[in-house]
Design goal:
2 domains, about 140 residues, mainly alpha
Length: about 140
């Protein structure tokens, strides 16, 4: 149950962050805003690490395969694409499309067992749920 609430908080924070970052971009540029976002995230993470963890920072380099270390670089492009989509589509439409894209890609990752994720069998109910999510976008955009 705690995972459910954490996921809800995560979604809410992502939407709020997207709006904030889009506004910051209007005062600077998208890459300057993105650099500031990533820098402040670094400061918060280092502070949290100092207060709670203290495991060696170098331990992250033990991960295999090494391409898993690209998460931060991907994060920079996530911030960029969220800002761009919110600026052009508005927060509600952008988040709806982002969430459906996340669902679709996550399901493909599970189905194919990519990136070390345990392979899951095809389930019609999940495919139908994805179809309903896409139908929701169509209904939401319908004028």
């Amino acid at each position: 149950m705690i995972g459910f609430f954490i996921a809800l908080i995560s979604g809410a924070l992502m939407s709020i962050q997207g709006v904030f970052n889009t506004q910051v971009t209007k005062s600077s540029s998208i890459w300057a805003a993105n650099a500031f976002v990533q820098f402040t995230a670094l400061l918060v993470c280092l502070g949290a690490w100092l207060l709670t963890d203290r495991s060696p920072l170098t331990a992250v380099f033990k991960v295999e395969p090494k391409y898993m270390l690209l998460g931060g670089a991907i994060g920079a492009f996530i911030t960029y694409t969220v800002i761009q989509s919110m600026d052009t589509l508005g927060p509600a439409r952008a988040v709806m499309l982002i969430v459906v894209a996340q669902l679709l890609v996550a399901y493909v990752i599970e189905l194919m067992g990519l990136f070390g994720v345990e392979k899951q069998p095809w389930e019609w109910r999940k495919a139908i749920g994805m179809g309903l999510a896409v139908a929701g976008i169509v209904i939401f955009k319908w004028k």
